[in-house]
Inverse folding.
């Protein structure tokens, strides 16, 4: 095992976890007293520890790297150009993804004729309905230290951008602070390198525990909905993302995906884009994306770029409308797509965040919440693929923005001999690219 690179070890951990999970489920799953008393608690502990260690690195990594990245731009005008392109990609791809979910639901009609037991479902969940102005205000923290303490990512990102701009404008003193921020980023990067060593074990524990407890029984009457959801997300990854790479970035998709396996698996197993963020930021340098691009685009993407969730929300809204015989006009469908993007930008990237967004969307639309409650019970079966789609989308956007800015190093991007840095023996070599 010591001779294997980290990416291979993660794949082995994931495959072993799937096999072990089905074995546990075959042995009785949550109804087996020994498994419930000893095995599942241990798997939960290992999985939770892995997630905590990864997320421990996220806030300092985002804060220092964005501020340093903006300061390294050397020109505030570049920040405007990069920011406009980033949010344009996020909004356009989000609308396309939501539209795909709506299209699949309208064509294949998963809710028509479905008979679901809604008797014991939760019928009301208290939520705060976001609006466009509320989402925009949420980008700015009243107290940045409170945002840092609570890992409230969008205010942290905004504050980091202000810090980077201030370094640019502060002259020589700003350069001294920028150097200090660069040192902090390097130290946090070393912490990330240490934490990633346990990724294979975290992936094993998370997937084995989930499958072991629930198995295929999670599907039930939701099978058609779940299949369509997976089809939509596979389409986004295989078609939409590859088109962006080919047409906008003019980059070889095969060489992109060869590197993207590791963050895909981490996002899939943890259910949080923030958990894959440190790996994405390290891969960006390997792919020839300059730090001033990746340090700005990737953290924003981890919070705001949610193609997987947008597709899911669009499909779920149509699914519920069909079950309750609610007619949906074209203008209503367009409004649903718009709301999906607003919710994706304005909601924190947390595990099972799709349940929170679905509840909010249904409240906005005036739909009954029973369907959300039923989907929530089996959400783990689709949460991973949502997050993996979101996370890989962040890396795609970064590649496209760098290419459109004319700063993507194609020689480095095409050099696959550098594609296994995460498994390198020398951590210093990993951090320095």
């Amino acid at each position: 095992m010591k001779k294997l690179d980290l990416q291979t070890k993660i794949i082995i951990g994931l495959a072993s976890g799937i096999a072990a999970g089905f074995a546990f489920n075959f042995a009785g799953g949550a109804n087996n007293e020994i498994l419930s008393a000893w095995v599942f608690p241990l798997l939960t502990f290992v999985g939770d520890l892995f997630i905590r260690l990864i997320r421990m690195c996220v806030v300092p990594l985002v804060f220092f790297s964005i501020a340093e990245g903006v300061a390294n731009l050397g020109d505030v005008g570049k920040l405007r150009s990069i920011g406009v392109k980033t949010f344009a990609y996020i909004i356009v791809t989000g609308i396309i993804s939501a539209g795909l979910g709506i299209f699949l639901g309208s064509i294949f009609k998963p809710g028509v004729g479905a008979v679901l037991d809604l008797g014991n479902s939760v019928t009301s969940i208290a939520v705060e309905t976001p609006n466009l102005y509320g989402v925009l205000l949420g980008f700015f923290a009243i107290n940045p230290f409170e945002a840092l303490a609570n890992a409230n990512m969008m205010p942290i990102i905004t504050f980091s951008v202000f810090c980077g701009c201030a370094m640019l404008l502060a002259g020589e003193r700003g350069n001294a602070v920028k150097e200090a921020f660069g040192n902090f980023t390097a130290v946090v990067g070393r912490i990330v390198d240490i934490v990633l060593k346990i990724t294979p074990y975290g992936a094993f524990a998370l997937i084995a525990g989930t499958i072991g407890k629930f198995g295929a029984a999670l599907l039930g009457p939701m099978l058609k909905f779940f299949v369509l959801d997976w089809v939509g997300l596979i389409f986004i990854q295989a078609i939409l993302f590859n088109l962006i790479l080919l047409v906008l970035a003019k980059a070889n998709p095969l060489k992109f995906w060869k590197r993207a396996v590791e963050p895909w698996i981490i996002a899939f197993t943890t259910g949080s884009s923030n958990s894959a963020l440190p790996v994405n930021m390290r891969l960006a340098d390997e792919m020839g994306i300059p730090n001033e691009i990746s340090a700005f685009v990737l953290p924003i993407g981890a919070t705001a770029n949610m193609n997987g969730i947008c597709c899911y929300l669009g499909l779920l809204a149509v699914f519920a409308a069909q079950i309750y015989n609610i007619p949906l006009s074209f203008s209503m469908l367009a409004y649903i797509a718009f709301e999906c993007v607003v919710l994706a930008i304005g909601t924190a990237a947390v595990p099972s965040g799709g349940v929170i967004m679905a509840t909010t969307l249904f409240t906005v639309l005036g739909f009954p919440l029973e369907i959300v409650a039923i989907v929530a019970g089996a959400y783990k079966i689709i949460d991973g693929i949502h997050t993996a789609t979101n996370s890989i989308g962040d890396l795609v956007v970064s590649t496209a923005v760098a290419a459109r800015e004319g700063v993507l190093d194609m020689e480095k991007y095409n050099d696959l001999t550098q594609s296994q840095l995460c498994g390198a023996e020398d951590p210093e070599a990993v951090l320095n690219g």
